[in-house]
Design a protein that fits this description.
The complex is a heterodimer of chains A (about 90) and B (about 270). Chain A is mainly alpha-helical. Chain A is about 60% helix and about 0% strand. Chain B folds into two domains: about 100 residues, no CATH class; about 160 residues, no CATH class. In chain B, strands 1, 2, 3, 4 and 5 form a five-stranded mixed beta sheet that branches. The chains are: A mainly alpha (about 90), B alpha/beta (about 270). Chains A and B meet through α1 and α3 of A and α4, α6, α8 and α10 of B. Bound molecules: iron/sulfur cluster (SF4) (2 copies).
Chain lengths: ~90, ~270
């Protein structure tokens, strides 16, 4: 049951773009070698995936990203405003 | 139909009937009682849907023996099943009456209800998650982009609890979403994505895909899509189709299967 529950979480995280960052393993206290190996492998995997995207992820960050992108989108969508010469 | 309800009320088969009535131009849920039988003539049927099942659970919490009749649609039966499983309602005391509200199969998004979320605009399609996307379409994006898109959606949340409050199968007395040890308080948007993932995880084996949460969400977050995925995983892993059967949710069982029967606690 634990395996299935962890699988469930793994798939959910994958669906929202945080896949591969959760691992489950049974290691007995007599299996020091296995422990070392599993931790090593997982560390490598995480290193490969890069830092946690949630870290330092703030709304500001996002607004900036989205804002910049919105700027370009808006530019392509709307025609450049014509220069208007004020009367008088 | 109206005569049948009157008969049920008169004969005492039910104490109250939950249906809809137009009040000030709006179809709203309404409880019809036996002391005012003429009132039933104002009952309306159609594609209105409010979580009557949830109203029923609130009534039962106050008066455990009350017998309730109610108008149902396809998903209401699934909601009722879930509430039976979780001991929130007793099937003995509920009398469903099939309404004619479901325009099934007419809309591809809301496959068993009339509800359909608003169209996703250009911006949302470009940077967020299209509300109308299927699970497969939402999985087209690479991990990083998916994350960005979902976070764009989640950060719009104003923590109104509308998704929880409208949900026919949300009934817990204490809600994790309000627990300060689980979800940071005091700031908006609420901690994303944990707020939404906590709700998503709790909808595993519970959500019956009625679509009310998505409709209620003022921030237009594609909640239904998220919970659909959650329950697709549940079906895949546990072979459990939420609401379609009357067996316990796999998440309420410790171990592989139920081996002990519930017994009343013996008097000391
Ligand atoms: S679709 Fe939304 S409102 Fe309906 S059961 Fe699922 S979570 Fe609750
Ligand atoms: S209904 Fe939408 S905005 Fe309100 S708490 Fe739920 S997800 Fe957030």
């Amino acid at each position: 049951m634990t395996i299935k529950r962890i699988n469930f979480l793994q798939e959910l995280l994958e669906f929202m773009g945080l896949g591969g960052r959760l691992h489950l393993e049974w290691i007995s206290s007599a299996e020091a070698q296995k422990f070392v190996q599993v931790v090593k492998e997982f560390t490598e995997k995480i290193r490969h995936l890069g830092p946690n995207p949630l870290r330092g992820f703030t709304l500001n960050n996002l607004t900036l990203d989205v804002g910049a992108a919105a700027g370009t989108a808006a530019k392509t969508a709307c025609p450049e405003p014509k220069e208007t010469v004020a009367q008088n | 139909m109206k005569n049948k309800i009157k008969e049920w009320l008169k004969s005492g088969q039910i104490d109250i009937f939950l249906g809809y009535k137009t009040l000030q131009g709006h179809p709203l849920p309404h409880a019809f009682g036996k002391d005012n039988l003429e009132d039933i003539d104002t009952l309306i049927t159609g594609s209105n849907y409010y979580p009557l099942e949830k109203i029923a659970t609130k009534l039962v919490a106050e008066k455990p023996d009350i017998k309730i009749g109610m108008i149902t649609q396809d998903h209401s039966q699934r909601a009722l099943n879930v509430l039976y499983i979780w001991n929130q309602l007793d099937p003995e005391n509920i009398k469903p009456l099939k309404g004619d509200g479901c325009s099934s199969n007419l809309k591809e998004h809301a496959d068993d209800s009339h509800r359909e979320a608003g169209k996703s605009g250009q911006f949302k399609k470009q940077f967020g998650m299209n509300t109308h996307a299927s699970i497969e379409e939402a999985e087209i994006f690479a991990q990083q982009e998916r994350f960005q898109r979902w976070m764009y959606e989640f950060q719009k949340c104003i923590k109104c609890y509308g998704c929880r409050n409208i949900c026919p199968v949300c009934f817990c007395k204490q809600c994790s979403l309000e627990h300060s040890n689980l979800i940071g308080t005091g700031s908006l948007p609420p901690e994303a994505p944990i707020y939404h993932l906590v709700r998503a995880v709790h909808m595993a084996g519970r959500c019956i895909d009625c679509g009310l949460c998505e409709e209620a969400c003022p921030a237009d977050i594609p909640l239904r899509l998220l919970y659909r995925k959650v329950n697709a995983i549940v079906t895949e892993l546990f072979d459990y189709e939420t609401g379609s059967r009357l067996d316990q949710s796999p998440f309420s069982i410790i171990g592989e299967s139920i081996t002990l029967k519930l017994k009343p606690i013996a008097a000391a």
